[in-house]
Design a protein that fits this description.
Helix content is 78%, strand content 0%. Helix 1 packs parallel to helix 7, helix 2 packs antiparallel against helix 3 (37-68) and helix 3 (37-68) packs parallel to helix 5. By secondary structure, it is mainly α. It has one domain.
């Protein structure tokens, strides 16, 4: 439907990725710690807005590529599969680390929202991930390319990530020390997500090689 393939796989992977501790999560926790639940919620909304921006940029950019050249779009997908496998390998090899609370200046909710959005939009890793991740679940023919499937996948990712971000803001303001000190859970999620990414990358590369 809508040129999307294996949506259930995309959804499961998106949820798993959102659960993996990262820069956005730590930003939300830091804001929740320093200014409370409301500030954490605004930071979560700002980051979600940033993901929407990445979605639109990837959607229209990739749909244009598909319209112009099926070969080029396939090349982007293969490069994306390799990148996913690379990300997975890095997550598996990465040493566990504890994320310590950083002191953050008190700011208005409007500034917190804007800062969260800018932090996400200007993160090149997020842009690269979207370019690598979304095309793996798109099945469309050249000349009939549409940004719709990319937007659907991107908004799905935004919804799952936004839900997790809001939950993080809510509970980190209540149980800060537990979230900050639970490095073992973060390491397990990193390893699990890394395995998923490597498996996905290898599977996609094999499928493309045989097609």
């Amino acid at each position: 439907m809508f040129g999307i393939s294996h949506f259930e796989v995309f959804l499961m992977t998106a949820i798993l990725l959102n659960l993996t501790p990262g820069t956005d999560t730590m930003y939300i926790i830091s804001r929740s710690i320093s200014q409370g639940r409301t500030a954490g919620i605004y930071s979560a909304l700002g980051i979600s807005a940033g993901v929407v921006v990445h979605t639109l940029l990837a959607a229209f950019g990739l749909s244009v590529i598909l319209t112009q050249s099926a070969f080029l779009f396939t090349a982007v997908k293969i490069a994306g599969a390799i990148y996913l496998a690379y990300l997975g390998a890095r997550m598996l090899l990465e040493k566990s680390s504890t994320h310590e609370k950083k002191s953050m200046p008190i700011q208005s909710n409007k500034k917190i929202f804007f800062q969260g959005m800018v932090t996400n939009v200007t993160n090149p890793k997020v842009a690269l991930f979207f370019l690598a991740f979304l095309p793996q679940f798109i099945h469309a023919d050249p000349g009939t390319a549409s940004p719709i499937p990319f937007i659907i996948l991107g908004l799905t990712f935004t919804l799952t990530g936004g839900t997790w971000s809001l939950l993080t803001a809510y509970f980190s303001s209540m149980a800060t020390s537990k979230l900050r000190k639970n490095a073992k859970a973060g390491t397990v999620l990193n390893r699990l997500t890394g395995i998923v990414f490597i498996g996905m990358g290898i599977s996609l590369l094999k499928a493309k090689a045989s097609s």
